[in-house]
Amino acid sequence: MSPALKLTYFDVAGRAELARLLFTFGGVAFEDTRVSGPEFGAMKVSLPLGQLPILEVDGVVFSQSMAISRYAAKVAGLYPADAVQALRVEMISETLLELATTASTIIYLTKDEAVKAEKTTKLLNETLPKSLAALEAMMQGKFFMGENATLADVQLFELVQYSLKSFSGFDLSKYPKLEGVVEVVKSNANITAYLAKP
Question: What region holds the GST C-terminal domain (predicted)?
């Protein structure tokens, strides 16, 4: 019997969106709970690390967004059983996470417009071309690991959809294999329905 899953976060994409997308892509039933700031304040003291997101698995509470996302990938059939293949997926995942952190820092934490412009230029002209070219070279077929989607593919979609598209001048078409992954994930029936929700 499948465990009862309850994912709790704020009503934004943020640090819970990757897990939401992984569960959704894999057709895994879960309760998607969205809380307000005051609601979080009331529950904060009871949380393992005093932060969100949390995932409840049959009532047991777990924290840390990437730990939750890896679990989501595993139960969704999006994580390799083979240790070396898993290592490769994790290598790609960490590369994507580094890019997401850099992008988020620019978007949300850099207030000075001149500094933001400088960091954006570096991201678009140096950081992204280097990393995306490396990721493009790692592609082994339709997806990063061949013909089967993994955590890495959904994570790439999440990075592009929720972070990189925010930057004027970002162009994924220079990396057709990566662009193909994004389109395949986006066209998944479960993902299409999820994105169509208000």
Answer: 82-198
Q: Does domain 5-75 have CATH number 3.40.30.10?
A: yes
Continuous segment of H or E residues that includes residue 23: helix 17-25
CA distance 57 to 54: 10
- Tell me the pLDDT tens digit for each residue of 110-119: 999 999 999 9
| CB-based contact 80:86 (threshold 8 Å) | yes
CA distance 55 to 37: 18
| pTM, two decimal places | 0.97
**Do residues 20 and 32 touch, judged by C-beta distance below 8 A?**
yes
Q: Give the pairing type, strands 5-10 and 31-35.
A: parallel
What are the sequence ranges of the domains in the chain? 5-75, 83-187
For 74-117, the pLDDT digits (tens) are: 999 999 999 999 999 999 999 999 999 999 999 999 999 999 99
Decide if 13 contacts 162 (C-beta within 8 A): yes
The listed CATH number (3.30.450.20, 1.20.1050.10, 1.20.120.340, 1.10.1200.10) that belongs to domain 83-187:
1.20.1050.10
